[in-house]
Amino acid sequence: MTQEYYSIITNAGLIKNAAANSGGSPVNLTHLAVGDSNGSYYNPTGTAVALQNEKHRTTVTHVVVDENNPNQLIVEAVINEIVGPFYIREVGVFDEDGDLFAIGKYPETFKPDLPAGSGKRLYIRMILGFASSPNVELIISDDINNDPNFSTDVNNALAERLVKAENLADLENVSEARDNLGVYSKSYLNSKIGRNYIMNGNFDIWQRDSSFNISGTTVYYTADRWNCVTQIGGAATISRQAFAAGQTDVPNEPTYFLRFDQTSSGSGYNPILEQRIEDVRSLAGKKCTISFYAKALAALNLDIDFVQVFGSGGSVSVGVVAQTINLNTSFQKFTLTFDIPSIAGKTVGSSSFLASRIRLPENAIFTVDIAQIQIEEGNIATDFERKHVSEILALCQRYWHKRLWYFGWSSTNHQHSIRQFNFPVEMRVAPTITNVVEAVWGAPGVTVFAQTSNKLNLHAAIPIASNGESYGHFMADAEL
Fold first, then answer.
1. Alpha carbon of 212 to those of 242, 259, 263: distances in Å?
2. 456 and 322 in a common domain
3. What does pTM read for this prediction?
4. Which of 137, 285, 394, 435 might form a disulfide with 342, Cβ 3.0–4.6 angstroms?
């Protein structure tokens, strides 16, 4: 049976495809045209250079090699609802030079137009046969609303779309989808309570003081759990700064932020703001994400990195490659994801930790403000985790706290007095005690008698048959 409707490649098309196969550039097919062939059919031939009566030309939306036959090329286009009215009996494909690459005899089809009261979107497909695989630029449309693929192809594409009623259950990887969308279930959020590995990331607790002048290479603890060091010959002031009530630069109404004011430049290395996360096992072999807000008095760069410190008797420290951020004069949120190395094969000694470091500019004078620092497992930065200040204080007191003491006596025959002070929380280890006698009447000597990780005994040597009193404070330090 003779095939009534068909498509053929024109002589010009064959020449261009042959040139492409011989090392030339692939043929770039750009347009598809339809015509009414002047009201009657004809049999197209390879000598054609145009349609007999072109009615409309449009951009092709799909040019692909047939997956079932590598010697066939499928070319498709869409004619939208507002085009018409006319009959279609011929179709042609043109390249970027405007040359007719292929021509076809098309079953008579009426194309109405929407202004006339009847709209129809028409999908045109041409299948072109070659002696070998065609050498043309391929075009694939991802827009299903304008997809020239019809029948089962369209249905298959629709089947891949999400179904609202399934609530993401029809996805292969629900967890990844939730991370990409930033959508979390209530149970997931509950499981992430306590997710912030940073203590005092909101800078609410400043047990030691609210402002510190630091210099040289000495490591100073400032806001609780945060230590700072400047440079050789350098000096800086680290201080607690208050947010204005109702400000919107940093969300959730934080009370304070930390200011690092480098007042004198030094040399040797970068000034550092660091928190040591107890136990080098923390986040080992996992992804973690750090997020925070920061600004500077003038635009500058900061480096963020991590160091695994294996403690006394442990393996050599391991650094994580730094990432650089650019600060300007307004608070902005920064989010960085790191891969923390595995500790497989390492030796973990005592007092190990994971150091999270913000490295500030070297050999420069600057002012940097930082707020709401959070580190959490995974590659997603969730909203900053707020905790009551009493809970944060208790966490910080595991590492450092200060306590007042008082001894008083009158006409006693006792030469010694021992008082026990229970720490507010059990400390990380038996702390180093710094005892300060602030005032004394009657000249007693008050010294540390004994201490453990949860209590301290102070001893006062009291003169016989005398009156007196003494008061002061001690500081218990179990920082890493």
1. 16, 11, 12
2. no
3. 0.64
4. 285
